[in-house]
Structure prediction request, 377 residues.
Amino acid sequence: MSTQPPRNRLAPLKPGKPGKLTPPAVRTVPALVNEAALLDDLRDLIRAARLRVATVANSTHTMLCWHVGQRLLKENLQDGRGAYGQQILATVAQELVADFGTGYSYSSLTRMVRFAESMADLAIVATLSQELSWSHFQALLPIKDPLARDFYAEMCRIERWNVRTLRQKIGGMLFQRTALSKNTREVIAAEIANLRDGQITPDTVFRDPYLLDFLGLKGTYSERDLENAILREIESVLLELGSGFAFVARQKRMSVGQDDFHLDLLFYHRHLRRLIAVELKLESFQPAHVGQMEFYLRWLDKHERAAGEEAPIGLILCASADAEQVELLQLDAKSIRVSEYLTELPPLRVLQARLHQAIEHAREQTARLNPPEGDAA
Prediction:
């Protein structure tokens, strides 16, 4: 039986040479999975992919409708062919419905022909189809004025209206209420081209009148009641004002010397990159209102205008305004707009007639200020 002591498992360290101990293996415990975060990420991925698929599908279908309409236009099935053209179109529709379903009925093919006829520029249609669905285009087809139709199409693209909102804007005569509509057709066409290039000007932003019937104001009310109602229904107000408006303050205090002044409402417009000062007036427009607004704009320009922003714009919202008074004051040069607001909508025919008169008056004014070269004396 051996009497030697048991050999150590670790060899002794040799003098002069540092030794190295191997630490025991550490067992790693897997981190707990955040199932909620994982599910959120997966849902976002799936929704984003579905949105891309839907966008491509909508665009492809819209372009198909345009090309079908173009192909039918080449056959002149409507112009000059009368009953014969209708018969051919009905026969084609019957065959296509049997092959591809009710989306190619006689009425559907007729809309496709109108679509290709009224919006003949393929490049513009291709761009719009990335944002607008076939249902959007069908809502645009009844608009007879090409400039108005182009305006609604571009605003719909920029502001991302759904079909219901687009129909509401058309029904609310948005085009006729913009300052843009009061210009010559050449100016309007140029402004719509600017919209396609992503440039927005005040003429496409401001309305006259503003339709504030959703405020629920009837009978006698004060300016404070009007202001409170606007803030209470701020979401609807912003929808009426248009995309790009952001609410900043109410009763904005402006200290000048020993006195304090208060602006009713202050907004900021992201696309214009400007502060928008709004004064509410229960009475009809008075020239004295201009001096007050100029004072506010100068204060905002000095104390609130940030680097890179354009000069502030003022909007005087009043119960009514005399067009000749507003014209005489030349407010565009002062960056001031005057608009009426309607808390109760008049009958549609009355509103149409009123807007038509305002547009004609504005165009006559433009013609007087800028006569054709041959008429200049």
Observations:
- Residues 35-74 form the longest helix (40 residues).
- The chain has a mean pLDDT of 86.
- The longest strand covers residues 245-256.
- The radius of gyration is 33 Å.
